[in-house]
Amino acid sequence: MSATRVLVLNSGSSSVKYQLLDMRDSSRLASGLVERIGERTSRLKHSPLAAGGGPREQSGPFADHDAALKAVAEELARDGLGLDSPELAAIGHRVVHGGRHFTRPTVVDDAVLAEIERLIPVAPLHNPANLTGIRTATALRPDLPQVAVFDTAFHTTMPESAARYAIDVETADAHRVRRYGFHGTSHAYVSRATAKLLGRSPEEVNVIVLHLGNGASASAVERGRCVDTSMGLTPLEGLVMGTRSGDVDPAVIFHLARVGGMSIDEIDALLNKKSGLVGLCGDNDMREIRRRVDEGDERAKLAFDIYIHRLKKYVGAYYAVLGHVDAVAFTAGVGENAAPVREAALAGLGSLGLAVDDELNAVRGDEPRLISPAGARVAVAVVPTDEELEIATQTYALVKR
User: Which residues contact 12 (CB under 8 A, 6 or more apart)?
Assistant: First the structure.
């Protein structure tokens, strides 16, 4: 195949992130973001990484995703990287929810679009935007393969014992209620990169991956396959996050409705947008929370302690699920940059072979690195995630076949 470029699109409800990569060496040719689509203040930030020159900005308004993607195409064309280039092999799309049906990257056709649309009730914020991106890109290049790469796909290897909730089976199946997991492209990439860091193949190692950003999730990866993950039917379950509560007693919802007089929509907004770190202390930026902790702020300290307590519980749980752990890998914005989080999350777990070297943990960098003491029974790693590269890699491998 002579065409070696892949354009990766991540279409959100009011934004489009993109990267153009050359898969001969996985180099980035361009990247950018269109934000606040549909608003008068929308703008496009474009970085021509291969063409030289600095970043460019273009003010909107961009009325919809169609206008946004056309503007992206124009910016790429200015750098000689237009969508009409014969070097473009495919467009890879991040799709948040693939349900049980999509277990691997898939070339989009009418049947695939229809199934993604049927999954909207379990991903009402994400799948509609993902569909819009696919349809707009298809209109711009109808002759080009459009490939959907699903956040949930990596987690479809979970056994039923991990994927099912303990509710009536017929009710669960009728409404597609089960644990799907998210951040799958990140967990897939980081678990493989961790194995490489250890000089072993993914099939030889068990890894606990901690994807800690504003959204956060953990996964237990056994010999390259996910066997459990913290997010469930939606991204709300699991760890304490920036604005999401993570695990709560389901009866909290009934209590708030019956005693607090709150509507379902109000409770939904509370748990997804007004909880987590921001609900506990008013901030969802870990840097600000740590600053406040260092200044003696009790609310910030409590928020941090709750965050760490939940994280440590999942590390221990997934250690038990796997039985044997070769590595714990921290990734995403908080995982890659917040040394105090990494230290606190594994503090007191020396009996499990888990420890952090203070000096190594304090080092910052963009490359995968070990932060555990020399000779540690379990490796502790910081592995920067690269979801765009993972989507491009899966997309290119599929179209090559």
Answer: 126, 129
Which residues lie closer than 8 Å to 108 by C-beta, 6 or more apart? 93, 134, 138, 146, 147, 148
The catalytically annotated residue of 25, 79, 110, 151 is 151
8-state DSSP, 352: G
Bond into 202 cis (ω within 30): no
pLDDT score, position 11: 87
pLDDT tens, position by position, 184-217: 999 999 999 999 999 999 999 999 999 999 999 9
Instruction: Determine if residue 272 is left, alpha or beta; phi over 0 gives left, psi from -120 to 50 gives alpha, anything else beta.
Output: alpha
CA distance 62 to 284: 29
Is the CB of residue 396 less than 8 Å from the CB of residue 27? no
- Tell me what the mean pLDDT of segment 323-338 comes to: 97
Q: pLDDT averaged over the chain?
A: 94
> Is 228 annotated in the active site?
no
Strands (E), 184-308: 206-212, 216-222, 225-229
Q: How far is CA 80 from CA 8, 344, 366, in A?
A: 17, 48, 29
Take residue 290 and report the two structure tokens written for it.
């740590």
| DSSP H or E segment with residue 22 | strand 16-22
